[in-house]
Amino acid sequence: ENGVAVDASKAILTAETMEMDMPAHSEHNKQMLAEFERRRRARTLTLPTDDVQVKLKLRMLNQPICLFGEEILDRRERLRALLSNMSEEEVAAILHSDRMTQEQQEQDTETWYYRGPAGLKEARVCMADYSLRRAKLRLEKSRREALETNQQERALARQEAHKLVQTFQLHGSQVADSRPCPFAEFSPDGKHVVTAGWSGQPTVWERDSGEKVMRYAGHTAQCGCARFHPGAFVSQSRTTVNVASCSHDGGVILWNLEKETPLLTLENHGDRVNRISFHPSGRFLASACFDASWRLFDIEAGEELQYQTGHSKSVTDVSFQGDGSLALSTGLDCYGRIWDLRTGRCIMFLDGHTREVLSGEFLPNGYLCITASADNTCRVWDVRMRRCAYTMAAHTNAVSRVRVDPGGQYVVTSSFDCSLKIWSTESWQPLRHLQGHETKVMGVDISPDSKWIVSAAFDRTFKLWTAADY
């Protein structure tokens, strides 16, 4: 019995000794300890609660600011996980990079708005008077239609518009330029089309015959956009401003319908001008510039009234609300902004797209707008509610431009996937898919009577679409 007890004690001692002799710092243990330490550091990190700041930190780390289906809290935890793998010095550099003194913050706030010339105040008063009259007429018309037409009649009108859309077919195609054609627009009377070309020569065409009416010469670089004056071929004299165009060298030129040479050249921007837009009154012109600003010009005086910053990257488009009181700007910084032209203040920040926003447009009702992005989607925004009302998975490639039917019944989008799509403004569902271009479609427009669509493409052509029985 004593021998058995001695052997047992040896076995226990041997077992204890063997257990103590196991390597205390194996690779597995090191990994576990490192993971515990990382989690401890992650819990001690103080992260910003503002989602915009979280996105800025992710951008500083060269990480996507938003993943598909990611919520705000998920994004914050992703930032926490990334920072927990960095050294304390690197974490401090990221988290405290935006610390400023109160004086610096006030200076940065002041630089959003620049002191304008004496004519800016007069211009704001003019736009306020114009927009108030237009808004009053629009609201009176809406109330009258609400009283005079019932729900069934409105539904029938919408069905008629959608039925017309279903009959749209390719009507004709025309070579517009010797280089890609990035832009095309109908005249206010709907019987003419103006195109921009990278050869630097904007051109006016007859819609039905496809014949060239006027080809302008004056730009020294690619012409990216050409627009008709709101009164062209309707109320505007042929000898005054009827067309405006911009180019990649920063030039903006005004033209009439009598001669091919410039009527007036506005002050050079010093950087590429991507798009221009006439104010509904016809007196003012806005330009979107690649220096991260957009500008407002008085075309009667030929002077710059406003230099507006707010975007962190190039501004891609500027468009006006139908009343003329608001402006929508979009940029390569993935954001859009809505500006009150009567005060100059930004009243809404459009945050939601994950890639560059290329185009924007207001709907005729005055309180909805839609933006098109390189993330292949379009977003509908409600200015009254200050939020995104709907997101459309529009195309399989970047959406280059969006246009709204003047009657407010449908929307047309153009895309780099070589096609156009028509959408209902009631349910935001697709109504028609138009295919005919062989290269990316860079621009689209709808005629004032809503019966024609024109598209401009990289293949140097513009195409006209209308009802099959035209």
Automatic annotation (TrEMBL):
Keywords: Coiled coil, Repeat, WD repeat. GO terms for molecular function: U4 snRNA binding; U6 snRNA binding. Residues 132-159 form a coiled coil. PROSITE patterns: WD_REPEATS_1 (PS00678), WD_REPEATS_2 (PS50082), WD_REPEATS_REGION (PS50294). This is Pre-mRNA processing factor 4 (PRP4)-like domain-containing protein. GO terms for biological process: mRNA splicing, via spliceosome. It comes from the Eukaryota. Residues 49-101 form the Pre-mRNA processing factor 4 (PRP4)-like domain. One of its GO terms (cellular component) is U4/U6 x U5 tri-snRNP complex. WD repeats lie at residues 266-307, 308-349, 350-391, 392-433, 434-470. It comes from Pristionchus mayeri.
